[in-house]
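Letters spell out the chain; backbone shape is given numerically. Both lines appear below:
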Amino acid sequence: MQKELLAVKNLIVKIDDKNILNGITLQINAGEIHALMGPNGSGKSTLAQVIAGNPGYLIDGGEVVFNGKNIVDLLPNERAKLGIFLSFQYPLEIPGVNVASFLRMIHNKRFEENISPIKFRALLEEKMTLINTKDEFSDRYLNEGFSGGEKKRMEILQMLVLEPKLVILDEVDSGLDIDALKSVANGVNRLCRKNPETAFMIITHHARILEHIKPNFIHIMQSGRIVKSGGLEVAQKLELEGYKEFNEELEKTN
């Protein structure tokens, strides 16, 4: 029997008295890959931010249970320490902090270690090889002057270093060329092989990334609800017919 890792139960979320999520229910078991698709404004990124603990959203009902514990009152850093990782759509530039120092710091926090710089450098070089990233990348300042593809590689590199239990990738494929997309997918697939209990929620607009990362389930969101769940056939229908074909499913939930 598969172990339940994340259970979102009838989640209602507001911003400025406006409902953004309207009763989301979603279960992700250890080792599963879930893709979340939907048009702009459907609530995909809001769901990701709420799971990660962004305090800018008001939870007006429901639960977020991770590893058997309701985490709605936990701070983002507490959730990260439990093993929840969220990639950013628009990562911040941090001049003066190099990549290697930053990654060593978060690694030590995550695993409550004090790994030496020399030992960590060997670990980091191994991870960078997996996503086709050159050694000098680790000496650059965090995201400063990075291209869009380099920023996405940086997010995947953090993921590989932290080895989280739940990975949420929010439009990590946006704006990537095919080589960068394959590097991102290689990082995800590598973590799947190394840690088969790790679960993924991949938020995307397009099915292209799903050619390289095979999901167990695909969910379509509209108007703050999950209106359809299934396998790859859901993405295939979406590619052929667009989101308007799911309007009937949305009407059934109203």
